[in-house]
Every structure is written in structure tokens, then in C-alpha cells.
Write a structure and sequence with these properties.
six-stranded parallel sheet, seven-stranded parallel sheet, 374 residues, Rossmann fold, alpha/beta
């Protein structure tokens, strides 16, 4: 590729706030690096989102906007929002005029809005990577002028201009790869004559899942292993300390505040109990791991419930509404899933069908094809 400034490939990726927006952005960046090593990429984020720690750690160039999200619970936090939006639009315009990208990619979060809107006003091709089955307000508005919308779920077409939607799946980082089960088991100190349940709720944890699991833990451990990621919340008071300590000694229980090796955790488990975030579902699909999903009820536009229902329709998961989650209901569903190897095998096969392991490269190829039009 010609190295002159007018010929080099230049891409802006805007997205942030949570891992569900940051890690897809990073996965697309890694795919671009493989397909076009000389491409220049600039990220756009905010200093108070997860991107502020993750992206610099990966050596990425980041430009910061002053924008913040709309608060539904604390109205007084919205007083400066019009000013922040105006400043963020000006910051976006200055960046795009100086860097002159051939394509701008948005992976979600409120930081995406000013950047993609400005790019569209300047006539720069834009791509939206929509992770969820039910797109949020920003995506729905920006999709009208977007060049392409790369959807994680086929159901997203119902809410977007269908002609612009391409079902790519959700991009996972290159480092995420499911390994051989027997090899992974060597790193986890559990009794492998028993089936294993993986329970997690993200880095912060999921209070309702933790509180339902704690009183059910003793009954579960009579038959199964449990790997429990509690998140920052830690174990609730209802967790019996004697049961926890005994089961840990007997290699039936592992408790972590955070699991670094999630790919390994998926590989050694027979069933997951977790929320229904889009990236969690993408990882479960690649792993082919059946799941009991408890969607976070306060997610924007209740998109986690929409994600979960899309997987339920395909026979890959069982859904428990957060309001219906109790220790008995959780115990019953887990036992039902683990009682039948045949049922679980069908769920695993259906989950595997949802996998799109080439999503990051597919999106990167779309982006590179759009750069040729500039």
C-alpha cells in the first residue's frame, strides 16, 4: 500500500462505556491489524469509561470526548448534557477534519453518537456494529444514514433498515479461543467425575444471581461442581461458610471475584448460569455451552431479555426472568438441564449454530471495502 498520507488506510472506531462496547471495538481493531497491517486506527472514547484503562493498555491511540450518558435516575446529572453534546460534536469535527478517515466504525455507547453523526454529515462512510437483538435509540437514529449495520442477531433487522443490515455476529478478541476440555481441566482444581456449573454475572457481579445461588449452593454441591464468579459484590451473607469451605477442600467448589481465564471456564463447564449480554452470548456460542439466562432487567430498552429470547427460540438456552429468580427455581432448572445428557447435547448444538467466530474479520473486511470508495 502506498504510504503517502492521501493513500494510507485511516479508520476511526468510536465506542465505549462498558466491556460490551469496548471489547468488540478492540476485536475489530485486531482484525484490521491482521488484514491491513499498515492501517492507521484512532479510537474515540471517554475518560470515565472502561476504554480509558483497556485501550491504552493495548497501546492504542485514543481521543477523548466530554460526552456522558443520560441519567434516568439522577436528573440533576443531565444539566450539563446539552453543553457536553455541543462540545463533543466540536471535538468530533476537529478530529475527523484533521485525521481524514475513510471510514468510521461505531460499536455502541453514548460516545458513538457525536462521532458517527458528524462523520455522516461530512459524507464519510459509517459502520454501526450493533451487538444486541433490540438496538438502542442511538443506533436506530444513526442507522438511517449508515453505510452498513453489522448485526450480532438476525432479529435486529426488525428494528433497522433491513437493506443495510448484515448479520456478522459479535466480534470476539483474537485471544478468546476455546481449548480442549481435558487440557483445560488440568488448570482447575475440581473433581471431574461430576458435572460442572459455571455461575457468573460480569466483573461487577449480579446481585440477584448471587443471592439466589447462595441458599441453593448446598443442594447443588451434593451432585455437581460449581465455579462461581461473585464479582466485586462477593458472596452474600446467605452463603454457608461451612459448606463453602468443605466443598472447596473436596474439590467441588471454586469461588472467584473475577475469572481471567473465561475461555478455560467455558471449556470445563457443562452449563452456565449468567446474564444475557450480547458478548456473553457470543462467547457461549463459540464455546457451544448451554446456559440458563437471567437477563438484567434494567438494561436499556430491556435488550438483554430480547437477546435471551432470541436464543430461547433457537433452543440453546433456558430463560428465567430476574423477578422469578429464587433459590428453588434456580435449583430446579439447573437440575433439569444437567439430568439429561441428550437435552444438554441438543442445547449445545443449537448454541454452536449461533456462533460467528469470523465476525471481527468480516466487519474489518467490510470496513476496508468502504475505504476503497474514498
Amino acid at each position: 500500500m502506498n504510504s503517502a498520507r492521501g493513500q494510507e488506510t485511516r479508520v476511526v472506531i468510536a465506542g465505549g462505556g462498558t466491556g460490551g462496547h469496548v471489547f468488540p471495538a478492540l476485536a475489530i481493531r485486531q482484525a484490521l491489524a491482521r488484514l491491513a497491517p499498515s492501517a492507521r486506527v484512532v479510537f474515540v472514547g471517554t475518560r470515565h469509561g472502561l476504554e480509558a484503562t483497556v485501550l491504552p493498555r493495548h497501546g492504542e491511540t485514543v481521543r477523548w470526548l466530554w460526552i456522558s450518558g443520560f441519567s434516568r435516575r439522577a436528573w440533576w446529572k443531565n444539566v450539563l448534557l446539552p453543553l457536553k453534546l455541543a462540545v463533543s460534536l466540536a471535538q468530533s469535527l476537529r478530529l475527523l477534519l484533521a485525521f481524514r478517515p475513510q471510514v468510521v466504525i461505531g460499536t455502541g455507547g453514548y460516545v458513538m453518537g457525536p462521532v458517527l453523526w458528524t462523520a455522516q454529515m461530512l459524507g464519510i462512510p459509517t459502520i454501526i456494529q450493533e451487538q444486541n437483538s433490540r438496538p438502542g435509540y442511538t443506533t436506530r437514529r444513526l442507522a438511517k444514514r449508515a453505510s452498513v449495520v453489522c448485526a450480532g442477531f438476525d432479529d435486529a433487522k426488525e428494528h433497522l433498515p433491513a437493506a443495510k443490515v448484515r448479520l456478522t455476529g459479535n466480534p470476539l478478541r483474537a485471544s478468546f479461543a476455546i481449548e480442549d476440555r481435558a487440557q483445560a481441566q488440568q488448570r482447575w482444581n475440581l473433581d471431574w467425575s461430576r458435572k460442572t456449573v459455571l455461575v457468573f454475572g460480569g466483573s461487577a457481579g449480579a446481585r440477584s444471581i448471587n443471592e439466589a445461588l447462595a441458599p441453593a449452593l448446598g443442594d447443588l454441591l451434593t451432585s455437581f461442581n460449581v465455579i462461581w464468579q461473585t464479582g466485586k459484590l462477593g458472596m452474600p451473607a446467605a452463603a454457608d461458610e461451612v459448606i463453602v469451605n468443605t466443598a472447596t477442600r473436596e474439590k467441588r467448589l471454586l469461588v472467584y471475584s473475577f475469572i481471567e481465564d473465561m475461555a478455560g471456564a467455558y471449556a470445563v463447564s457443562d452449563l452456565a448460569v449468567c446474564r444475557a449480554g450480547a458478548m456473553t452470548l457470543a462467547e457461549l456460542a463459540v464455546a457451544g455451552l448451554p446456559a440458563v439466562l437471567i437477563p438484567y432487567p434494567f438494561a436499556t430498552d430491556d435488550h438483554q431479555t430480547a437477546n435471551a429470547r432470541a436464543a430461547v427460540q433457537r433452543g440453546a438456552v433456558v430463560l428465567i426472568a430476574d423477578g422469578d429468580l429464587t433459590a428453588p427455581s434456580l435449583l430446579k432448572v439447573v437440575r433439569d438441564c444437567l439430568a439429561s445428557d441428550e437435552k444438554r447435547a441438543v442445547m449445545a448444538a443449537n448454541m454452536k449454530v449461533l456462533a460467528r467466530p469470523q465476525a471481527a474479520e468480516d466487519i474489518a473486511r467490510i470496513a476496508l471495502s468502504l475505504t476503497q470508495t474514498r
